[in-house]
Structures
1.
Amino acid sequence: MEKRRSKLVYENELALFLDYYELTGGKADFDHKNTDMITETFFVRKIPKNLGSYMVAAGLEQVIDFISNYKLSKEDRKWLKKTSGNDLSKEFLDYLENFKFKGEIYAVPEGTPIFPNEPILSITGPSIDVQLFETYILNVMNFQTLVATKASRVVNAARGKTVLEFGARRAHGRDAAILGSRASYIAGSTGSALVLAGKKLGIPYIGTMPHKFVQERDSELKAFREYAESFPHNTILLIDTYDTIRGAKNACTIGKELREKGFDLKGVRLDSGDLAELSKIVREILDAEGFKQTKIMVSSDLDEYKIDELLSKNAPIDGFGVGTRLITGANYNSSTKQGEVSALGGVYKLVEIVKNGETIPKIKISEDTEKTTVPGKKQVYRTFKDNLFAGDEIVLWDENPPKNSRPLLVGIIKKGRVVYEFPKLSDVRRYCLEEILKLPEKYKRVADPETYTVKISDKLRELQQELIRKSKNQ
Amino acid sequence: MEKRRSKLVYENELALFLDYYELTGGKADFDHKNTDMITETFFVRKIPKNLGSYMVAAGLEQVIDFISNYKLSKEDRKWLKKTSGNDLSKEFLDYLENFKFKGEIYAVPEGTPIFPNEPILSITGPSIDVQLFETYILNVMNFQTLVATKASRVVNAARGKTVLEFGARRAHGRDAAILGSRASYIAGSTGSALVLAGKKLGIPYIGTMPHKFVQERDSELKAFREYAESFPHNTILLIDTYDTIRGAKNACTIGKELREKGFDLKGVRLDSGDLAELSKIVREILDAEGFKQTKIMVSSDLDEYKIDELLSKNAPIDGFGVGTRLITGANYNSSTKQGEVSALGGVYKLVEIVKNGETIPKIKISEDTEKTTVPGKKQVYRTFKDNLFAGDEIVLWDENPPKNSRPLLVGIIKKGRVVYEFPKLSDVRRYCLEEILKLPEKYKRVADPETYTVKISDKLRELQQELIRKSKNQ
């Protein structure tokens, strides 16, 4: 396995990245010699409103890194002993300090399009061990899957134009900026403004110029000239500090000066105003002065809805810088001005236990019937027609696959050993873009996409009904 | 200064936590020997819809830690040189490698209630230096201020009942879980489910029991019994795995067993269903069996709107576990089911430059007049009446303060030295709760609070108008 490319936050202390009930539950299991082998799965019940009909799986690499290295440090142990009062026993803490995960993990590779209720990750192991990872898996995979999903929509809306991730300033903390940049890149963005995303993950980093640079000089023209002198081969001018049209004319003046020195004016950037109208006027100004090759980049509270609208109006835009709404995975529809909470509600649920050799499927019943879980360890098969996705089927682990299908969950850890070779991030990105091409257009529309068919096998349905009946009769 | 309590993500590499334009702008400044001293301020133009009429400042400690230690490592430098092509010169990278911030920072202490357009942080220093911190300041302060603001609303809605932060599983990455827990604690939550928040920040960590623990046993009663045996002094039972009312009765059975051993049943937790109705029934069941001291805790997609509704219905709830909507700072109104993007749109803007000894206020004009900045280095004074906040005034730095007022921005770094003593987090929390008490009730209502008066001084208004005129005539 390749060296992990994204060292973790608060390194060496991450074994404590868990909700306390994972330790109290574990300790009570330990006290009562619970030796069950269990299976829990991570899945998403519902795609948030306004976020379309498919998701893009992301976050697996960070999760496997965590699980395969999990171990309580001496210092953490001491601290837990002290601060938990009598809650956590010496014996249980010993167990955690000598921890080594020996179970199995199957998961959907990063970059794979997935749908509601499909297991994205399935983990089997001793009960105490498996529960330790709940918070971490949910944290890392909910967020990255959310942003990859959003980014995929933005990239679709951009119809082949460049999408750049500009979100660090509005990301929820530093890790969100990096992981968000990662998820966005997986789903097809071309680069990030964040230099550290470049360093940690090899994502191309890019930048134009700050408003401040213009504001500080006596004139916009002087600012443009100084900037162009420093980056003659790579000049992208920000033209909206005072007046975008005047800015475009000033950019042409500088473009001519560059031309005399043998360089091209690479681009201009618009960051405010009516982007559809302004981009057309700016294009005309540039073209009239012979700057047909100069690109127009725009930014300003963009998302897939706005980008779709701009391109539907034939705005001559070459690249989109997308910030807040991408990095937060906002499920906000900027046309209807309605949204909800910027989060993916993925859950981690017990589906099966093996007690004394006997396999017992498990259910969590909810008055909200949508929330009642589907019991049993499961596989997902994706069927194909003319090389396009033609519906998925969720089945019990050992059921026969449907015709012309492939399984989505692949082996990641077996008997505690990582058996999966994590692809390079750029390969994950390529894979994702290829898979998205196989998803028929009607499921990818920005507004009102159709719902993709995910069948739950008859056996699974029967099993669920049986367990519901049993619980009622108890 | 106390030892920093929250080591940073991706430690030693954080000097690259910046948008690339901060380096290109800096390099062009460097090339052209820009020796201007400038002032930039961080402020929030507008509180997101549904998030009330005040904010709670948070994030300063992480920002000061970053700035006071800022320096490019040799490795980062080498990497930048290689990957930026010819963009960044040896001389400029030398400058960054030997960097030491020598400027000044004034800021509003963490935990202070603040209002739109008020500078929260004001930084003065060489132009190149000050721009390096833009992304970091925005990232850390936007997020923590957002969550502290949300948490303050949740705590107000809870009317003195306990609020626990349960958000890690839906936080945007690992850092968001920790920083969100921090911000939430500052604004009055009592503890966090996240153990690492306890370790890093001294926040009390708490937990009940997982559904899984119940699902795994043959019966709920058996699960409760095993859990109680492990934590007789600290038993909080999760009673909704199958049927909440049956769960409450089972909890009473265990409560009696505990009683025989000399322990009390500490609490029960409801995590689904109609919490107003169920909490009343559960309270009756507990009371009838003599468990009047047993607390009822609830969770399940809570926010300030739901908590307010529950308590308005006299639901006998003692504590609220609040997750997704707290840790994402969701500006979602669960009554009207409308929301936007879970982010705070704070900005970092140039307001003044000092060139060859001359002070020149600066403006950024926008067609969207709301976005036009107020030029000049500024202070904020808070006025008081009967010891309650009675309106703020934003003034030029050297204007006279209004009567009966105190300045909000205090010195943090002077001549490059940290002069501010960061209080302990529990003291920040206490300060915040005291300050919120001084904010009259009408500004704190969950729904439709009044707008607090923030005056912009006449001098500032005149200055702004003058610069707008000048720009138009240019």
2.
Amino acid sequence: MNRNLSAALIVIGNEILSGRTQDLNIKFLGGELGKIGIFLNEVRIIADNENKIIKTVQELKDRHNYVFTTGGIGPTHDDITSLSVAKAFGAELELHEPSAKKMREHYGSNLNEARLKMAHIPSGASPIETKITSAPGFKIENVFVLAGVPMIAKAMFDALLPELSVGPPIISRYIEALLGEGDIANQLEKIQNKFPDTDIGSYPFFRKGEIGLSVVAKGTNPEKINNIIYEVEKIIKSKNRKYKIDDDVI
Amino acid sequence: MNRNLSAALIVIGNEILSGRTQDLNIKFLGGELGKIGIFLNEVRIIADNENKIIKTVQELKDRHNYVFTTGGIGPTHDDITSLSVAKAFGAELELHEPSAKKMREHYGSNLNEARLKMAHIPSGASPIETKITSAPGFKIENVFVLAGVPMIAKAMFDALLPELSVGPPIISRYIEALLGEGDIANQLEKIQNKFPDTDIGSYPFFRKGEIGLSVVAKGTNPEKINNIIYEVEKIIKSKNRKYKIDDDVI
């Protein structure tokens, strides 16, 4: 059996927990990692709190191949991710001179101490540089520290992508029909038991007042996925329902 | 100092981790809990995995006043939340007869074993019933188990609301201006130090190609919040920028 790589994401930000801001990075990272065969296995959303960040990084870095963090690397007093991650590794923050140089060029006389904070990364870390901002993210051991703003998080992820090991890609197909989950739950369970190493998910939806379901088969073996979808198709056909089959777009 | 109540949320679902589905319940619950003085202090997103659910519930229930879960209480094989939460408390799943009765009325001859699974709650739990579905959520000790579909999660939250203790409401106001975070980071830090028990957050935004920031003051003391916003207003005025002040709508 193919072994997939495992990742965790730590979302750092009071604004996500308070309901002020809708997180968009979880969906993005979960989908992008899956494409290269890395399973996002858990997500923690935590406050801008130094001890909490340190403990969470230390706990998760030993448990997963990769840990990503988003948020808290800006210039203000509540941006404490870089310092906290440095402390999690017993490292000091150091000025990254090439980033400082870019900032000097970009900000000119508006470059101040607060902005220069963003050019500091832990000793031993390597910067994650993008074209859309002079302030870098960074990688320290297996931990990747990204910005919280989705556009910047995405650019940083694209920049670090070549550094990730690639597992067998996770493939996902779905079949959907206007049918209640309970109508085929029993048969679905039998199919799942027949294909124990391929994940079958069943998700209800509501459209224009009608109830439907999507059955999603997800794994690394395309043949098994097609067989699962084919077996579900037979059930739905036997109930004379219209249906649709497609690759799962994430 | 007022002590606020603390909550955690466990989002259960492979579809959130894989990037298939955008979670909407975190933002909803974080905002609603804040209104009644309960801080959402951490969120865990985990897979549909029995051991993981059991361990996470056991860890968080002792650490927070309330724990909420969303997802995994439907009729299919991948809906294992109810059984896993029961096991976390050493309880058995039992048929909740009033919910079964509602289901019999609703489904008639389409009621099958899979659907009846949804009328089972742990021994000692109390059901969370809504008008939009016959399948209940439930409360066991300080853990509230809700559906994952946002519309149903919302109805269940409304139904359980009277059971929650209420803390001093968390109030939040913001001031926004077309100004870089780095331009006022230093002054913001001084204001934060002057009001240590009120949370000041600074969040950049990008609109029509322009960079701006929102400074959010959040806490339980309206006077301190107004003083903070007033001090930030003075700084922005001194820089001759337009600005806007409002209650933070969550």
